[in-house]
Amino acid sequence: MDVTFKIRRQNPELPGKEKPYWQEFVLQDVDPTDRVLEMLHRIKWEQDGSLSLRRSCAHGICGSDAMRINGVNRLACKILVRDLGERIQVEPILGMPVIKDLIVDMEPFFDHYRQVMPFFVNDDPLPADGRERLQTQADRELFDDSTKCILCACCTTSCPSFWANGHYVGPAAIVQAHRFIFDTRDQAGKERLDILSEPNGVWRCRTIFNCTPACPREIEVTKAIGEVKLAIRKGKTVGIVQPNVAH
Amino acid sequence: MTSLVLTVRETLRYRGAIGQWSWVLHRLTGVGVVLFLALHVIDTSWAVFYPDLYVKAIAAYQSPIFTLGEFGLVFAVVYHAFNGIRIVIFDYKPELWRHQAQAAVVVLALTLLVLAPVFLGMASHVIDFYVTEQAIAGSKIMDVVVFSIIEQLPFIAGFVGVLAAAIVLAALFSLVRGDASQRGKYPQASPVERFWWGFMRLSGILILPLVFGHLALMHVVQGVFDITAAQEVAGTLATNGTIGVVPSAVEFVFHRWSYAAGGVFVWRVYDLFLLVLVTLHGFNGLRYVLTDYTSFNDFARRTSVALCTVTAAVLLAVGAAALFVPLEKDIINEAMAATAEIYELRGEEVPEELKAFLSEDL
Hints:
Chain A is an alpha+beta fold. Chain A contains eight helices and seven strands.
């Protein structure tokens, strides 16, 4: 099948192309099960070598090829042509400065990430056997979902609150904080809750639910944010995380 | 400004699910209601402080433009209320999130379901007015609106004053606190935001019966046209037109606020609760909206916060003052001259008894 790609491009270094513009490419012999990332490669290799995009593993693990594809944030390496149709629109994720074409400056995103202390804190001496700090399966289950984050920024850049206000810490950083806040072995929960209760912390979330379907790892992002809000409201982390109520 | 334009444009372009559109509608209806609230608190207080202006304001409200606005307002309140309940549920029970899209549809359906009979009730007042009252020519109606608005122009100075005060406050605050972006890298916990988050949800729920009661009483049981009609004032035992020579909007308010059951001015207490909760909820909501779009500039953000704070304080002060003032029957007589003016503007015959009263008064 033939597929038309409409790509939002921009090259601040090239006179005449500093401002964003749309460019169309038509690809022939596209298989419905081809992934968008492969098609972007074909455009770059066969038609226009100047097309710039970021990708590393190309298998949905590294999280470097987040893009807005047909209006929704996705990983280009995980979405198939057959799920999109014969006209596919690709543009950079929104809310961070565009460096070139589909590549954005991720530094503001990682800056928010670092703010929430995304590392394990426990100053107690190691257990007698000198190995793991053990935890029950039920305790591990509490933050299982938020361990899946690959920091692709699909959620944060799907959030209208983040588009409006780049200071908002954003869904991804809150998910990362959630992973440690609800870990019973971690000891810095209070510090993280304090950080997230500042004006540009969790309170900027308006429960819009754009982040949850945007996550390529199917993390229940809005639920995680809601749990962090409740933990701050109630001043405790125990008894907050509840199992999902199924459809 | 780029931030606002960008956000609006991209919100329309991003293919978010129904939750995104619920949020857009929640914001639009919220801002709409809060703007009306500012107008409404000020002009209702005129019934006590400037009776003639109140008569003219109500005359303007009885024009088709405002009738359309009234339907919009009722839609906005009902949708905002139902979607607010949805937000509260998913905020306190995040584990239910899989049902949020369904809930957004239910909110829309419930809104329409409730609005159908409500709009019919409201429309019957409008139809009654145009069928039983003398038909008023279109140009005359605009005369009334333009006249009423011109009379009230000086009060725009009040809004300019509030804005100026907000800018001054923001400037002072910036001098004292300095540039927020220059402070420590790690942000500080904010018990203030934590409080407001809970308050918005609690007040939202508490307001529901009050607002729905108010809407039922003022828009369905009796409409804006009944405020000046010779009939019993709903929620009281008094009849409009029994104190003044003709019924008037001021007398309507007089009866409402004079009605006491068991020694308590029921409607003053009711209106006070409504005033405080709605003003705080509304202007904190407006602060959320404004600061979302002004966060790129410290001064703009502070001005937004100050603007919401000052406006809310002014409305609370003016509204509470009107509610606490002991009512004198004089205000009803003060409204008579303006009532005659409205008759004339509408091209209607000024009733003989009103003419006689006014000439006596002179």
